[in-house]
Design goal:
The structure is a homodimer. The first copy, chain A, has 12 helices and 12 strands. Chain A has about 325 residues and is α/β, with parallel strands linked by helices. Among the domains of chain A are: about 45 residues, Orthogonal Bundle (434 Repressor (Amino-terminal Domain)), CATH 1.10.260; about 130 residues, 3-Layer(aba) Sandwich (Rossmann fold). Chain A has a 6-stranded parallel sheet with strand order 2-1-3-4-5-11, with helices on both faces. In chain A, strands 7-6-8-9-10-12 form a 6-stranded mixed sheet, sandwiched between helices. In chain A, helix 5 crosses helix 12 and helix 10 crosses helix 11. Chains A and B meet through helix 4, helix 5, strand 2 and helix 6 of A and helix 4, helix 5, strand 2 and helix 6 of B. Chain A binds a DNA duplex (16 and 16 nucleotides) through helix 2 and helix 4.
DNA sequence: GTGAAAGCGCTAACAA
DNA sequence: TTGTTAGCGCTTTCAC
């Protein structure tokens, strides 16, 4: 069943059917009605691959994420999918699992399916895989790499203001010894966040202590491991910032398991504000990263690059806001234990 | 850059290039090598839409899920994506958000993109949306609808054995008053599970009490609401089964908020075994639904239908296993109000 | 306002 | 073993 069949049934040519479907204004209303009726009756669906072949563009945006198991990403995907579909486009999702082989493969999938652009939320240190995308003139929007180029835009998370909010909050509670549990070492996003943390610390006149800065893995296990180390110091932090909520939740578990109470002995602040953070005990104070805004920023950036193939990429910005719940409180007066 | 370009560079015809790419054995090894070299050099990616157009099949399987925010689904998607990609196919994911308009739209997306089959994990009561799929001879594999037909297979979750395990476990703890919090009313999956619950109850000689059977929404909120009702009865259940883990977690929260302790006052059993269930307090006893097996069952069923277009659909089965953690314990000896 | 026809890139039947 | 060619379904220019 193709447009020619519809054309025959409606007594017109396939060109007219095409025009009706694409909503061209050049067709007489009666003709439109007649064609529409036939389309309805036989439940005709145009074959997208023909259009893609003809145009060289598929109307699909690729989305590459590291770990769909981290609740932040499903929430993001949901928003991104909604925006994409609402704009009559399609989404092609790929997961890398933090694995560079899977990353290569994902990019290959994008290229083969002729996506109109790629939103890359899994920034690895290696830029090599991007090359193929750039070389094939596929618009690319990265997250928090702070680097733009021709056909390459970036959506940055405003770490500075977020960190400032978090640290100001802790300062009001008189915390002086503040730790940080980062993401995986070597990923640019996590490096950026560590740096932002150190600078923000200095801004509130606290001298950063290297031993208070630990690396995690963006998962609960990483938070558990890092927090266990932090709390076994004789001179331990009274507050800890985590690179994401999962890490923070792991940190909370570790602290509680070691007999510390939250927030009386240690305050903990997460990052993302996943749904779960409101459910754990105590509910987690966290820097909320607004998914919808973020998804919209990616989509807009992609559209812009697609429609302006020779334009320089743009640097976008999404702000976080501090959501104060119950995992933060006044610094302990004296050492307990 | 297309196959003709490669052909020219390699001094062969485009047909030969095609043969090399598809791994035909008819090409002389030296020719293969020469063509491969050119492909490597210019980093050529075949245009999938041309193949799709030619074949009428896209090498893509659709996956329709209700709610990517429920942690079970990301875990499932991850497995399904891995299997699909490993088999050199593609996955097209769509979320319905339990909304029938989104369902229609998702199916439309599948049809337009010429998917080779659809895995439908969001079974609504209405069969109407499927019609388009069936009519267009798109293989369809549903979850737990227990109905097969031409080009329609089903993967059932063995509710019977799961329920039996759960109830036997509770019986050993001398529970007599057992409640159930289902999914959304009207969805066939949840109806099936309620029925399975009632039958399993009878099998251990407990007379089901209608007021102990509540409806939820597959989310935490539903569990909270239903559990609050269940526990406000004078004569309240001492154990509750939930339709999924999120519901069970909501139930736990409600119970704890009302001052009941788990499992001393009420035992709770979930369903799915999402990662979170091991993290909540107390860790949740639950019926584990193995994602990888489930994903594999869907994939195999799809492949089978695709390769045997005129075959009758098959009924597959996936078994659950009871994971005993700390949310279940002996029934309270006497009323603790 | 509508139709005819070329061509997007690939594959497979057929020819050589 | 390799090449030639028709055609998958759609869009769009050009002609009417």
């Amino acid at each position: 069943m193709d447009m020619r069949d519809i054309a025959k049934l409606a007594g017109v040519s396939s060109a007219t059917v095409s025009r009706v479907i694409s909503g061209s204004s050049l067709v007489r209303p009666e003709t439109v009605a007649r064609v529409r009726k036939v389309i309805e009756e036989v439940k005709f669906f145009p074959n997208n691959s023909a259009t893609t072949l003809k145009y060289g563009r598929s109307g699909t945006y690729g989305l590459i994420i590291p770990d769909i198991t981290n609740p932040f990403f499903p929430e993001f995907i949901k928003c991104f999918e909604a925006i994409v579909v609402e704009n009559d486009k399609e989404m092609l999702m790929a997961t890398t699992d933090f694995h560079s082989g899977r990353m290569q493969q994902s990019i290959r999938r994008m290229l083969i399916r002729k996506v109109d652009g790629v939103a890359l939320l899994a920034s690895e240190i290696e830029t090599e895989p991007f090359e193929d995308l750039i070389q094939n003139r596929v618009p690319l929007v990265t997250m928090d790499r702070g680097h733009t180029a021709n056909g390459l835009s970036d959506v940055a998370i405003n770490n500075k203001s977020g960190m400032d909010q978090a640290l100001r909050h802790l300062k009001e509670f008189r915390h002086k010894k503040i730790g940080y549990i980062g993401g995986s070492a070597g990923l640019t996003i996590s490096d950026h966040r560590v740096e932002a943390f150190i600078r923000a610390l200095k801004r509130i006149d606290i001298v950063p202590r290297p031993q208070f800065i630990k690396v995690g893995n963006y998962r609960i296990t990483g938070g558990v491991a890092a927090m266990t180390e932090l709390l076994s110091f004789e001179d331990r932090p009274t507050a800890v910032l985590a690179a994401n909520d999962l890490t923070a939740i792991g940190a909370m578990r570790a602290a509680m398991k070691m007999g510390f109470s939250i927030p009386d002995d240690v305050s903990i602040i997460g990052f993302d504000d996943i749904e779960m953070s409101d459910i754990v005990h105590p509910p987690l104070t966290t820097l909320r990263l607004p998914r919808f805004e973020l998804a919209k920023a990616f989509f807009d950036a992609l559209e812009h690059l697609k429609n302006n193939p020779h334009a320089q990429g743009e640097q976008h910005n999404v702000k976080t806001t501090l959501v104060v719940r119950e995992s933060t409180g006044p610094a302990p007066k004296r050492r307990s234990k």
